[in-house]
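A quick word before the example. In earlier lectures we treated sequence and structure as two separate objects. From today on, think of them as two lines of the same record. Here is TetR family transcriptional regulator written that way.
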Amino acid sequence: MQLSKDIIIDASIDILDSFGLADMTMRRLATQLGVAPGALYWHFKNKQALIDAIARAFLDPFLSGPVEADFATACLDLRAIMLRHRDGAELLSAALTEVSLREAVEGRLVGCLAESAPATAGIAAATALHFLLGATVLEQTQQQKLIASFPTADDPECTAELDSLSSLFDDQFRAGVNLIEKGAAA
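And the structure line, produced from the sequence above:
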């Protein structure tokens, strides 16, 4: 098999979605791809570099698309990106330690606030990003805990409880984003 960064990223996302970030190891990835672990290091110097590449793939539509005029919608879009993948918020938290990536994400949020809150847009964007990551990590952790308490994830009772949990987090998330936006404008 001819390895490429895209093939490795796609296989990593499959592992992430199936097993979570902690089990997305270079050894497991190599086994899934049918290569020696050392072959992966030609493309990514370590797991952190792979995490950064996955995060950039996740964030590409958000960062390269048109600037969202509405702050709340931009925050909801970021949350949706994280919720699409098991441990998506944890993965982005790890990747956003890379300064240029974090600044790019915050910059998009600043763009949404620049007109309504020019003096506080930067700190509001940073606060929103911290809130986004923390709230979504908590939501995904509670989802996994709930799923683990049922024999199967497709149990109708599990699905109903997940929907209820999702609705609660959605309401709290929207209220938190609203609070940050109003605080920035005040």
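Notice the following. The two ends are 57 Å apart (CA to CA). We will return to this example when we discuss secondary structure assignment.
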